[in-house]
Specification:
By secondary structure, the chain is α/β, with parallel strands linked by helices. It has two domains: about 120 residues, NAD(P)-binding Rossmann-like Domain (Rossmann fold, 3-Layer(aba) Sandwich); about 180 residues, Dihydrodipicolinate Reductase, domain 2 (2-Layer Sandwich). The chain has twelve helices and 14 strands. The protein has an eight-stranded mixed sheet with strand order 8-9-10-7-11-12-13-14. The chain has a six-stranded parallel sheet with strand order 3-2-1-4-5-6. A hairpin with a 2-residue loop joins strand 11 and strand 12. Helix 10 crosses helix 12. The protein is globular and about 60 Å long. One of its GO terms (molecular function) is oxidoreductase activity. This is Gfo/Idh/MocA family oxidoreductase. Keywords: Oxidoreductase. InterPro entries: Gfo/Idh/MocA-like_OxRdtase_N, Gfo/Idh/MocA_oxidrdct_glycsds, GFO_IDH_MocA-like_dom, NAD(P)-bd_dom_sf.
Length: about 350
Amino acid sequence: MAAVLCAPAALRAAEPLRIGVAGVSHGHIHEVISKAHRGDFTVVGVWEANDSLRAATHLHDKVDGALFYADLDRMLDQTQPEAVVAFGPVYDHLQVVEACAPRGIHVMVEKPLAVSVEHAHRIADLARRYGIIVMTNYETTWYATNDEAFRLVRAGVIGEITRMNIFDGHQGPVEIGCGPEFLAWLTDPKLNGGGAVMDFGCYGANLATKMFLGEKPLKVSGVLKQQKPHIYPKVDDDATIVLEYPTATVEIMASWNWPMNRKDMHIYGSRGYIYQDTATDMRLYTGGRETHLTPQRLPAPYDDSFRYLAALVRGEITMAPYDLSALENNVTVVEILEAAKHNAAGTPVRPAQPPRTK
């Protein structure tokens, strides 16, 4: 009898996660297209308000044309997804959560969570009120080297952290060939919240927030530059953000002006350092000696955003508030980015500190 009673739950866990796609203009939409064949999720509906984008998306190669909608509410009500993945402008993340939360539909957005603190707090309020998951997806979350760096730091291998230098970016979205539908909002100060400071500054803020277990910095400083105003006239293309913690300094270097693609970081401690060089390679210095490390690939579901989302929705795993995809972490990320932008503009703001407990 017990086996019979448990069968429906086991069957449901084995079924593909029913997802809706909200927006198709983000360059990372290829993540849906390239993984649609795996069978761990199925696209039950696609919303895109722009008629031409909706008609032209390569999702038509994977999804029946009858499942495309111009109206978000209609798509949600007629297809009833378990979760929605947002691949439109960052500004639209709030709209997606406003539609999904009252329906009990979980949401995954591409980084960053929101264009502003106002939007981020509204998203958080909706998620808590309706009990949904709002997950933020970063490429670097699935790096085995980042996971190993966290493990080594928490184990005290390099002592107490004294400094972190985090480098993220590439030659620029125009230079690397991002599509016009992506560039239209990625380089818009309203729809993206800024330029490189948002696009790549969020990575460093996200990693630092996890490394310090959700602690907010005491002070945030920012320097934003337009090194290529002829290409990016409306937004910054280079950002330096400095976070001051009680015992450490974090410098985030986010740019559309690197001569190469990079997502790496250096972590210095009282007894050594960790250089996370790539997604697969890193170096550890302790006892006067540097060792090269190649951590094993992360096991499922911790190796992929869609598998991770499915495991969260099914209750197979949980997130700590400081985890890289967690809502709390990413609200702090947006607070840091907004504080950096205000500081760069000469109006100092720092992330709100939680009330002290006696």
